[in-house]
Amino acid sequence: MSGVREVGPDPQPGPGTGLVPAPQGPAKDRDLVIDLVRFVCLVLVVVSHCMMVSPVLHADGTVTSENTLGDQPWFEPVIWIFMVMPLFFVTGGTTGLQSWRRLKANGGTGFEFAQARLLRLVRPAAALLAVMFLGLWAALLVGVDPQVIQLLATGAGMPLWFLAAYLATQLNIPLLARFHARAPWLTVTGLAALVVAVDCFRGALPLLAYANLVFLWCAVQQLGFLMADGHAARLTRSGLVGLIVAANLLLGVVTGLGLYSGNMLVNLNPPNLCLLLLGVSQAAALQLLRPGLGWVSGVRWVRAMVMMAGRRSMTVYLWHLPLLAAMSGLLLLTDFPKPAAGTAAWWWARPLVLLGVVTLLLPVLAAFGRLEERPTASGHMRGRPAAAVVTAAVVVFIPVADAAFNGLTLGLLGGGAACFVLAILLLGRMPERATGDAQSDAQSDAPSERRRGADGPLPAGPSSANVEP
Fold first, then answer.
1. Does the pLDDT at position 208 exceed 80?
2. In this structure, are residues 446 and 100 in contact, taking their beta carbons and an 8 Å threshold?
3. Neighbours of 74 (CB within 10 A)
4. Which residues sit opposite 67 in a β-bridge?
5. Residue 462 in contact with residue 161, Cβ under 8 Å?
6. Residue 163: enclosing H or E segment and its boundaries?
């Protein structure tokens, strides 16, 4: 059947095959296609931001920021292809569901799952907020114009919306997995209906539109659930192509009729039905291209690069835009040539800007990258009390919600860093079962009775996703 991965022995590595020996331990359970897709998405995000951010110093001394890429007339149809945020949530659903099932099979609870997810995402974000606050506060003390400080804070804080939305969807995985086990298609349909309902009333109640930060991305995440359980693999190649065409035709209809904007950046914040249709198209395309992507991901140098980047992907995502904003802001204070946005000279300078961001990322990755994997210093080895996990989640989302509604400020950076640190202290150390389930799963190729949960056996074949506690 098209798109179904064969279950059996892997090809043996050898000279000229481009394959590396099968890894031992947890890496054996990784879905290299998912890793490769995430890597490509991350690269596209970093490159596109380097072509978007363009601070401008005006003659009267004011500073503004322009989205040069978004202002191009040819950009709107292109962004339909390169808007990869739905794909992040599709892959997150695939890996998240299997991670939850592994943890549950080992006796873990939903609160332990939430504890592990919070720690993995909040630790690197806390470091970012603290460094940004201290750096911008120091810049303010040495006389940098407050409007420049505010511009840098606003621009650099843009990645945090993704962190908030991704964390909200991941924390709902235990609940949504239960619904998915009982009625997978009804669950997706119900979430899609909630998305449409919010879109219908967002004109009268603008704040209601932000509910789709949960409903929309949870619906897209459910597409990853369907892929993890092999539903997409049951479709023929022509069926997948038909699904891609249908999703894009419907997208063309709703944007052509003026119900939604044709610019996917406009549809991104707050998100709407267009992102769900893109998610359907991208999930089908991922399944359609899986055989070719599987071959690419098996090439030695590709696999090594993807594995190396994957261990620090959240740090790259969180830090690349603050570093880009800081670099652009410092250039405004120098006599370095600054071509006008959109000119030929400006476009030719983009590779240098990208190189500068990558260069700045290297010491940041060395200093903060390990926060994505290192347990905290607390002595609590088991899951924390439910009240502590719930309180930590609330503490994290308070500054995030404030930033979403009122914008990111210097004061909020400091308050957010304090809230995130408090959440880390409340959460303690990574739950023992969350860090050990990968090793126990890797010891057996076939699921045993011990590893079966209430939701049924762990899926095998179409999407044996990487463990992501």
1. yes
2. no
3. 7
4. 53
5. no
6. helix 160-171
The residue with tokens 């983009």 is 350
Q: Name the β-bridge partners of 66.
A: 54
Q: Which of 426, 357, 307 has the alpha carbon at shortest distance from 53?
A: 357
Task: Please state the pTM of the whole predicted model.
Answer: 0.82
Nearest to 417 by CA among 311, 318, 324: 318
- Tokens 């695939």 — which residue? 94
Q: What is the pLDDT of residues 330-384, one digit of tens each?
A: 777 777 777 877 788 888 989 999 999 999 999 999 999 888 875 544 334 456 7
Which residues share a beta bridge with 65?
A: 55
> What one-character-per-residue DSSP string does 88-121 give?
HHHHHHHHHHHHHHHHHHTT--HHHHHHHHHHHH
Q: Hey, what are 174's tokens?
A: 């235990």
Amino acid at 395: V
Q: Is 452 left (phi over 0), alpha (psi -120 to 50) or beta?
A: beta
Cβ 11 vs Cβ 286: under 8 Å: no
What pLDDT score was predicted for residue 436? 52
Mean pLDDT score, 284-310: 92
Helix (H) or strand (E) holding 169: helix 160-171
Q: Is the pLDDT of residue 424 over 70?
A: yes
Q: Which residues contact 212 (CB under 8 A, 6 or more apart)?
A: 195, 198, 199, 270, 271, 272
Structural Rg of the chain based on CA atoms: 22
Q: Dig out the tokens for 365 from the structure.
A: 């990755």
Q: How confident is the model at residue 435 (pLDDT cuts 50, 70, 90)?
A: low
> Residue 329's pLDDT is what?
75
Q: What is the pLDDT of residue 244?
A: 96
